[in-house]
Amino acid sequence: xxxxxxxxxxxxxxxxxxxxxxxxxxxxxxxxxxxxxxxxxxxxxxxxxxxxxxxxxxxxxxxxxxxxxxxxxxxxxxxxxxxxxxxxxxxxxxxxxxxxxxxxxxxxxxxxxxxxxxxxxxxxxxxxxxxxxxxxxxxxxxxxxxxxxxxxxxxxxxxxxxxxxxxxxxxxxxxxxxxxxxxxxxxxxxxxxxxxxxxxxxxxxxxxxxxxxxxxxxxxxxxxxxxxxxxxxxxx
Length: 236
Fold this sequence. Notes:
Layout: E1 11-17, H1 21-27, H2 30-37, E2 41-47, E3 60-62, E4 70-72, H3 74-87, E5 92-102, H4 105-111, E6 116-121, H5 129-134, E7 138-141, H6 151-162, E8 195-196, E9 199-200, H7 203-206, H8 210-228
Parallel strand pairs: 1-2, 1-6, 5-6, 5-7
Antiparallel strand pairs: 3-4, 8-9
Helix pairs in contact: 1-6
């Protein structure tokens, strides 16, 4: 089946998780649901305990050297990854971790061009380092804080990537004008009525002059970025 993507490629994302139910709802609503219904994106969630080391479903163990917290074991993860690789090649194997590269729009843009992506959701104290060394190709963090597991981070990343696939959004140009696409924050937006409690829409937006409107939006983007995220301007 051909998609709307330039080369007829459908993006596939496989996610390995010990709590797959945390990922079900985000993939079944709104834009991600639309992307899958259009056949532009396929998201498959794999329950890690399928590859457990024993009949009790064990996928974690105590860490060597002592210390609080369990660690996700090598064997279940290695088996899961290798079984998926036996079915197809993956452009990236991404581990969601607080100490990974900070997720930015340019990363999402790059990943949206890939065909097959695998994501690993950590839990407990994380995953055995040997999996990171031998299988993982990219490590991503969604912020300088710690979550209970990687599932919410994976959902954020899937949404961030999926909405960029041509044909997913109703207005295919809208993603191009999101915040961060050009290292600027998006300008203020307004809708009806023109006057609400004496709070008025800027005259430029009501002018019908497309050049004036574009100039106003550019000025506001620069102003907002300078005030709120000045560090972005250093990358201009």
